[in-house]
Specification:
This protein is α/β, with parallel strands linked by helices and 153 residues long. The chain contains four helices and nine strands; from the N terminus they run ββββαβαβαβαββ.
Length: 153
């Protein structure tokens, strides 16, 4: 399922695949394709398997929300960029992760989640074939589309 939206964060679409979100982000940077954001706190027992499952991604960002165990050191061992962000809400943590990514696509995971080979293949296929659909919207009762730009004076 694809939801298309345009907001100030530059988010253009969301694909929800069994509780794993993939965001399409246009940051005008072409150097990275897939970034992964992992939100974690005291996840030393779970984060290694999560990190191993996303080593194929171009960038790994961990938002640490106050760990006092070995979570941060383990994440750094797997070349993750770790940002400490205490306080705030889950949405704030996700947004902080998004701000610190460079990829065109952003995959959000919890530390207890894994990307299987099947899911990796599905994501790769989706990304290589993805095209934004033409949008149809209504403005003042009149249907408009992005096929024919409308100017208002």
């Amino acid at each position: 399922m694809i939801f298309i939206s345009g907001n100030s964060a530059g988010v253009h679409g969301v694909i929800n695949y069994q509780y794993i979100d993939v965001l399409v982000v246009d940051k005008m940077k072409k150097d990275l394709n897939i970034s992964v954001v992992i939100i974690a706190k005291n996840e030393e027992k779970k984060i290694i398997d999560c990190l191993k499952s996303v080593l194929w991604c171009d960038e790994i960002v961990v938002i640490d929300t106050g760990s006092v165990d070995k979570t941060i050191n383990l994440a750094k061992r797997y070349k993750a960029k770790v940002y400490k962000f205490t306080g705030g809400s889950y949405e704030d943590w996700r947004n902080e992760g998004l701000r610190n990514t460079k990829g065109k696509w952003v995959l959000y995971l919890d530390a207890d989640e894994r990307v299987t080979q099947e899911l990796r293949n599905e994501i790769s296929k989706l990304i290589s074939n993805f095209q934004f659909p033409r949008l149809r919207q209504s403005f003042g009762g009149q249907a408009i589309s992005n096929e024919h730009p409308v100017a208002y004076a």
